[in-house]
Amino acid sequence: MIVNIPYGKNLINLNLPDKNVVAILQSIEFNGAIDQLGIVREALNKSIRSKPLAHTSAEKRRICIVVSNYTRATPNRILLPLIIDVLKRAGRKMDEIKILVAYGLHKPAPKELEVEFLGKEIEVLSHDAEDENSLTYVGKTSFGTTFSVNNLILKSDLVILTGLIEPHFFAGYSGGRKSILPGVSSKEAIYTNHSFKMIMHPLSRYGILDGNPVHEDMVEAARMISTQMFLVNVVIDKRHRIIGAFTGDIYGAHLKGVKFLDKYVRVKAPLKADIVVTSNGGYPLDRDLYQAVKGIATGELVTRRGGVIVLFAECVDGIGRGHEEFYRLMAEAKNPDDVLERIKREEPINDQWEAQILSRILRDMKVIIVTRGVKHSLIEEMHMIPASSPEEAIREAYNLVGGDSRIIIIPEGPYIIPVVEP
Q1: pLDDT reported for residue 295
Q2: Residues 45-87: pLDDT tens digits?
Q3: By the 8 A CB rule, do 25 and 421 touch?
Q4: Which neighbouring-strand residues pair with 275?
Q5: What is the set of active-site residues?
Q6: Rounded to the nearest 10 degrees, how much is the dihedral formed by the CA atoms of 283, 285, 287, 288?
Q7: How far is residue 241's CA from residue 332's CA, in Å, rounded to a whole number?
């Protein structure tokens, strides 16, 4: 059996014995012709729990468009021109419009990368969660999050939140409120929202919103903002084509988008496997090892205790730009339990949530990484097993759990939500 696994901008052909493979879990194909521009235009004209963007923006003079950062597959170069066209038709001028990149705690992209994901004709501002002069205190949530937000959000008459709705490994789903917290919030707010207690909560997982404290805290924070906000979120298929767009009220439109997404990505698995082979969805999400924890967390959902996750991630940016603390947290510990104890004892620590989730997984199963972007010695220091090729990875997995192991393959990685059948 040959299965294509996304790896960077290419595919790796993985050959596995038919007798071992018990399931290949993939998103459901979208049936019908896809008119990406048409889907977005129609959504902009038929907003959810809100008047359309053209009407909403008609009397506004200071407009901020919040866009996703370069690690996301959000089709910004499709969305931005369409949004700006609507604004111009409503009488808005370009000097009334600001573009703000929701970096959260990610480092801003170099200019050439910014051009790749936004386009060279658009001038943008970068959110800096550590620049206190660019932030204003808004309030405190019931979860104890001291919430400050980028000044531009509060100084605008209208904030347009763009983004991609996809499964998220501790917020349940991306998109919607997530553009505000963590997207354009202070580091203190992000640290509390991503704290040890919040991440360790059993409902802070893929595909869960109700009772998920991370999600509920994000919603509370977003509701504190008095500026009018308008959502433009999309759902994409495995070929990164827009198959759904949801605009209007940032809560109602987001929930409708989540329900639409679930029809395609919530996939049943027959059991928890001995070996799960997965990816980080290819470029751009697999551009570094930091983001690759998402694919590992997908594998966790259908891997038995003591099993093995084999992850394919190219990692062109190595461990990750600005994510050195993630490496140090893992490498300086004797074992995954030490990582968890240190985070609990010393938080807040930058990148602790990624290290926490990875360590939680490594307590119960082995992880093999197939990559050419991270030195093998660094992967070993981080308590994982490196492999130079698919064949080497599968051999090592067999050595750990046996040659007659049951295998589940998840080619798309974190873009689906596998659910084990009762």
Answers
A1: 98
A2: 999 999 999 999 999 999 999 999 888 889 999 999 999 999 9
A3: no
A4: 308, 407
A5: 106, 168
A6: -160
A7: 41
